[in-house]
Write a structure and sequence with these properties.
Distance between the termini: 26 Å
Strand order of the largest sheet: 1-2-3-4-5-6-7-8
Number of strands: 8
Number of helices: 14
Helix content: 25-40%
């Protein structure tokens, strides 16, 4: 297995546990694929039945590991086609250590190639894939072409009642999730950053306040949770009331331009400490649409001297090894436009960061959520 090439490893030279196998660069083909005329690269698979016994054992262990406490890998994945030779177009080619993916820009019908790719990522690698978009106004992304959103959702679907229209909208999202066997919904909520509307404002989201958004979340939860699907809330989790936050599985903080370790941690703690299990459900994410070549914000300063020595990747490495106030490791990290992580190899920065975040000694297992 490859070890990290960064100087950080020397400082973290602890006896690694088996989790490191999921965060190192994984092999894409196996040498002893029995009963096959040739080795099938993972990118060419069309069914899990094509896996060899060795591969089946490996991925079974991977799926089991993902059920244990660890720093989860996350990202918003754009440009998904599941066609061609570019691995960055496939969910199945994401690092084994990636747990959750939000589909960025995927709102229409899935192709057969995408359906196959989705199933392989879910069934073989144990990953979860979420529908995602900015929730600003009623009907965003789902209002039929040529229809006025209010007329369609309130008048036609809601019988003239706005809240009934909100429920119809949330149920339509759930219908899409169930149609394609997706794993849940990522609510991108950014009213204070230019995305306010009749569904999004800066008010507290509670049963008796900001009722439109509360009704939306409650309707999603009632449909998705009983079937084991999840809801994540990204952008401004601090808009959630404590009771509402109990319906959210993870809080995703867009900590793109934080410049220090302390500033990144404040992104979570300032206003987020009243959220349900806030220390065990919070993710920090970075911007790769702008900073993929430098592994995050290039002027980032880490409080860890070994990370600070790195020429690139200081922000993502710092986030992956971040300790919460309770002394436990952060719940997860992620990147916006994760598919752009191509500098120095496919998903180099994300692989190395998750490797560092999950590489611990036997005596440090309690450091995880």
């Amino acid at each position: 297995m490859k070890m990290l090439k960064y100087a950080l490893v020397a400082a973290m030279a602890l006896a690694s546990v088996a989790c490191s196998k999921w965060t190192d660069d994984e092999r894409l083909t196996f040498d002893n694929q029995k009963d096959l005329k040739r080795a099938i690269p993972f990118i060419e698979l069309t069914s899990a039945d094509q896996l060899t016994a060795e591969q089946q054992k490996y991925y079974s262990e991977l799926r089991a590991w993902k059920q244990t406490p660890h720093v989860r890998g996350f990202g918003w994945f754009g440009g998904w086609t599941a066609k061609g030779t570019d691995p960055q177009k496939y969910l199945r080619m994401l690092p084994d250590s990636v747990d959750i993916v939000s589909l960025w820009g995927t709102h229409g019908e899935l192709t057969e190639d995408q359906k196959t790719d989705l199933k392989l990522f879910q069934d073989v690698k144990g990953g979860k894939v979420l529908l995602c978009w900015i929730v600003q106004n009623l009907g965003d992304q789902l209002t039929p072409k040529g229809k006025n959103a209010t007329d369609y959702w309130v008048t036609e679907r809601g019988g003239g009642d706005f809240l009934e229209g909100v429920k119809a909208y949330a149920n339509a999202i759930c219908d899409t999730i169930e149609k394609y066997n997706l794993d849940g919904f990522d609510i991108d909520y950014e009213p204070n950053y230019g995305a306010s509307g009749n569904m999004a404002n800066s008010d507290w989201i509670a049963e008796s306040n900001n009722v439109n958004m509360y009704t939306f979340i409650k309707t999603l939860y009632d449909r998705l949770n009983p079937k084991g699907r999840i809801i994540v809330f990204d952008g401004e989790p601090y808009c959630l009331a404590t009771e509402t936050s109990k319906m959210i599985d993870f809080y995703i903080y867009q900590a793109y331009h934080e410049s220090t370790t302390a500033a990144a941690l404040r992104k979570i703690t300032d206003g987020g400490e009243y959220l349900d299990n806030w220390e065990g459900k919070s993710f920090l994410t970075l911007e790769f649409q702008m900073y993929s070549k430098t592994g995050g914000f290039p002027r980032y300063t880490s409080s860890n001297p070994e990370i600070q020595k790195l020429d690139a990747g200081r922000q993502i490495m710092d986030y992956a090894t971040m300790l919460m106030p309770n002394g436990k490791r952060i719940a997860g990290i992620g990147t916006y436009h994760m598919e752009l992580d191509t500098e120095g190899g496919s998903y180099r920065f994300l692989r190395q960061a998750l490797n560092a975040g999950n590489r611990v000694s036997e005596t440090q297992k309690a450091d995880f959520q």
